[in-house]
Amino acid sequence: MEAIDYNMGTAAHDLTTLERKDKALARYKKERDWFAFLLEAAEMMDTPEGKLQVKLLNILLDSKEKVISSVMNDTPFVAAYFCTAPEILNAMNLPWFMIMETPFLAASAPYLLDDLRGAEEMGLGTDLCSAIRLPMYYIESGLMPVPSAVVGLLSPCDGTTMLQQVLQHNPAWKNVPLFAPDPPYTSDERAIRYFANELRTMVSFLEEKTGRKMDMHRLREVCEESNRTYKLWQEYNELRRAVPCPHGWEIGGAQAFAVSQCFVAGDPRCTDWFEQLLECGEIKVKEGRGANEYCPEKIRILWFDIMPYGWVFEFMPWLEQEWGAILVMDMFSNFPYTLIDTSSEETMFHDLAKRNLMDVPMIRQARGTAENFSSDIARMVKDYKIDCVIWPGHMGHKDGAATAGIMRETCRGLGVPFLHIGLDLFDKRYTSVDEVKDKVSEFFRGMGLG
Amino acid sequence: MTALDDHIRQVTEFVATMRRQGRPVRQFVLPPGANDLRAGLPIQLGAGANPGIILRSETFVELGNPDAGSCGFALWTEKPSLLEDGRVTLIGPDIAESPLASLPFGQVVMAGGAHLIGDDQVSLGQAQVVADQIEGYMVRSNSRNIWSRVSKQVGARGFSFDTLARALMFLIKSAVPRVESVEIAFVTSSKGDVLTLNEIAESAQAIGRAALKEHWKARGYDLDCDLHCGSCDDKTVCDDLRKVLATRLRKDKEAVGDDAQ
Amino acid sequence: METNIKSKAFEELAGAAAGLMNPAIEAWKAAGRKVVGYFCSHVPVEVMTAAGVLPFRMRGTGSTGTELADASFSSINCSFPKHTFNQALRGEFDFLDGLICISSCDHVRRIYDNWKQQLSTPYLTVMSLPKKNGQAQVDWYYEEINILRAGLGEFLGVEITDDRLRDAIQQVNETRRLQRQMYELRKRDRPPISGAEALAVMVAGNSLPRERYNDLLRTLLADLENTPGRSGYRARLMIVGSELDDPEYLQVIEDQGGLVVTDSICFGTRTMWVDCSETEPDPVRALARYYIQERPACPRMNGAQPARAKFVQDMVKEFAVDGVVGERMLFCDFWCAEHYMNKADLKEAGIPFIQIDREYILSGKGQLQTRIQAFLETMGR
């Protein structure tokens, strides 16, 4: 494996290698420490849901420690994404982190607004998605660990394509090998075969650049474990159809997505987490208990995007307390996956391609033509007895913004109210939380909900 | 000949083949009237009849788990005489005979009506996904075929394929009044048998998808076609269907004209 | 537009660029021939030319608002698709017999979904354009072009043979060659054609029958030999960016004393600086390689940024450019990040650079004038 060059431009020339590594890890460790703090808080919760948070945070922290250790010991690790077949990375025993990790997982961290200001000062347009600007800022400022290789992402949006290019443009990253599977625009068998070939090329790339080899038996094991995880997730999602819904925004929805795909895919700890999630969900359904014991369920929401992680604690509890509005389903909690056929190498690559091209959230809806915006809403509204659909209208979702009319028509056909807000999921300065609350309240009142 | 008559014949031939191959094939005939279908049922029917979900621990029988094999589709004909109204064919064990089992599951709903119109085809497809209309019976969300559960509660009351068939026939005849005859075939014998049925299903579903597209296209909305027709594998199916739909639309207009007079 | 060029050919070309419909299209349609619109310079015009239709590059020229399109798009969408779609909803594109969309960017690709839902153009398709330029992507686009060829051919009832494609490649290459000849004139100390005028000529090339256009270009080139060159400008500028089809935008810049001598834009050099191979035996293979690997890339192609940066810097040298103006339409993620990198690269190369955000329809003229004046001042011009 080639030695990693931590040269970060003229400003870093006088740093020792260790100092450069420390600088690159500084913010990453800060994030690790933030989650460690959340773990301490979760350990004090003596509820089944609290125990679930503890397990989740332990898996997350373990993956972070692996990356830190890889940096310090110069062992291979990669930067990748949840939608670039993370089962493959597990099968190759490659620790990895998500370049866009912070906005997806840690946007509630207290230092986030400072980071956003840093991104603005860099001179990038403020109409570029904040989930893209933040990692660009970290890369340009030398605040992201430089991996052995990068698995790039070219969908679902223009911003992600440019993130890979800014990364390759940066002096500290330009010699880091990068392979980005190319996402076709169509969603047919031809597209799946094409993408499967891209994944095979990705494996060859990783073998060459990291020295880690793919063992098909190991991939089969990982995929089978992943299947076990996903079956439990599918079963759990049935529970959220119950009235009242046993869990709200805090557990079981987006966390399920994170556990299955964002840290380590196809791991028995993930399966175990889902078993426990399912158990505590089933108990609540049997007892007829809703998500929030103090706030009876009055409105069942489909939030058709990621949750507003930048200000989630200011908004989601308010929804429940003020309106009895329970987030029953969201884009990332949805389960459209099919299981991976592990009978052969060909079927595994085929099904991994299908999953990562057509099933994973946001890629599913935004990569290609707009059918899934409509059909997913229709299915979820029916299955989960949804009372209203909220399209947050995140400022970075340009293609989604151009699909708002189609979503509105779909909801009109279904007879459910539809709200398009216009906000930044990660930066509450864009549209203040109070403003969002006002809009949502007006919507609920106007539609006679709650 | 209308588009799916041949598929109905294929299902008939499939049943005959199953019989020849020694599968347990049972057939019985249910009463034709909607109210007669409902009479004496041990379960509630209609919107909200199954308000809750059925947990794993509450499951009497699981039908159509993908691991076990699953296939569900609807066929229609303008010749009701092709079907025997109320006939139910069961190939394999019954629900009541299989407590706690996870059975492979094929379900073919065949509906006939001399005056069926375009929208009825869409309604028939949707009628298979019964949502909360059958007490103790839940079709799982996001399932691409029919993957369902029967609860222990209704299992204890003797829920069987007779019950399910009556429920489905009642719901279909209520939802689509132009249906004159309904037959249903259930297959629970083996995954292989269900997958054989799948071959008929794929061809029929292609026509069904095309019908759905035309249904929405007439409303200015195209559902799931992202290729131009020239490059679409379903084009010949679409062309056949368009001819059928054109004939149907003409008949609808004539019917409206007759009513107006 | 005001011009020094005394040329009937230029008048006709400028006229074609100034609106959507023009007499040549009217005559084409009157003769029973078809017009197929397309978005993005990655759509292979050669296929349309081979099919015998008039390829029309979509623009929102003449649009005064987006009140109809606003129901389909939103406030964070680029104004180019909004204005263009608005024109379509107003019936301004009813002359089209077909439309080829492509997965070019997040905003424009959704025109396909909305157009499909609301309009009934007889032929409508969307092409899947790769996001990088390796051999696998050339192979994918090879298939995509063949799918287009089959679908368009079936719609028109013509067979788009390999021979027809080869002829079309030659015709389009002829256009490119003539356009490059025009740009050669702009290398002079006193170019006979301004940036605004050159843009009008380039835009016209996407809305006229090809033979007619090539004839007009030849005539124009001859006329330009008799046209006095421009002097008295303060600086030679290059414009870099995306969908710029309004010569008036460049006119505003040039009225401040900055003469635009070259560019890297969607209606400019990226469409014609390189020819498609005429020696590759398989014309579809030639087209696939050309559109994915050989022509100057745009930011949506991952991995091609160094080549794009080199292209800009080579142009700066070839055309003796004093400063680069990077234009970007608001909400364009591609050019936001691309200009971020351009700024760093050009700074390192010692080339003055300014980024200007804009809307599709020219607005804020005063601001633009001020910024250009300031830019020229900082260059010491």
What is the name of the CATH superfamily of the largest domain in chain B?
Answer: Bifunctional carbon monoxide dehydrogenase/acetyl-coa synthase(codh/acs), Chain M, domain 3
**How much of the polypeptide of chain C forms β-strand, as a percent range?**
5-15%
N- and C-termini, Cα separation of chain C: 26 Å
Q: How many domain regions of chain B?
A: 2
Assess the beta-strand content of chain B as a share of residues. Answer: 15-25%
Greatest interface and its participating residue counts: A-C, 54 and 51 residues
Major sheet of chain B, described briefly?
A: 5 strands, mixed
The largest β sheet of chain C comes out as: 4 strands, parallel
Please count the helical segments of chain C: 14
CATH topology tier name of the largest domain in chain B: Bifunctional carbon monoxide dehydrogenase/acetyl-coa synthase(codh/acs), Chain M, domain 3
The total count of strands of chain B amounts to 9
* Helix-strand string of chain C: HHEHEHEHEHHHHEHEHHEHEH
Radius of gyration of chain C equals 20 Å
Set down the secondary structure blueprint.
The complex is a heterotrimer of chains A (450), B (261) and C (381).
Chain A: H1 17-43, H2 48-73, E1 78-80, H3 86-91, E2 96-98, H4 101-105, H5 112-121, H6 130-140, E3 149-151, H7 158-169, E4 178-179, H8 189-210, H9 216-239, H10 254-261, H11 268-287, E5 299-303, H12 312-323, E6 325-330, H13 345-359, H14 363-366, H15 371-383, E7 388-391, H16 398-401, H17 404-414, E8 418-420, H18 433-446
Parallel strand pairs in A: 1-2, 1-3, 3-4, 5-6, 5-7, 7-8
Helix pairs in contact in A: 1-2, 2-11, 5-6, 6-7, 8-13, 9-11, 12-18, 15-17
Chain B: H1 5-20, E1 25-29, H2 34-38, E2 59-63, E3 70-77, E4 87-91, E5 102-103, E6 105-112, H3 118-127, E7 137-139, E8 148-151, H4 152-155, H5 161-175, E9 181-187, H6 191-217, H7 235-260
Parallel strand pairs in B: 2-5, 3-6, 4-9
Antiparallel strand pairs in B: 1-4, 2-8, 6-9, 7-8
Helix pairs in contact in B: 1-6, 3-6, 6-7
Chain C: H1 8-18, H2 23-30, E1 35-38, H3 45-51, E2 54-57, H4 79-89, E3 98-102, H5 109-118, E4 123-127, H6 135-156, H7 162-185, H8 195-204, H9 210-224, E5 235-240, H10 247-255, E6 258-264, H11 283-294, H12 305-318, E7 323-329, H13 333-348, E8 353-358, H14 365-378
Parallel strand pairs in C: 1-2, 1-3, 3-4, 5-6, 5-7, 7-8
Helix pairs in contact in C: 1-8, 1-9, 3-7, 6-11, 7-9, 8-10, 10-14
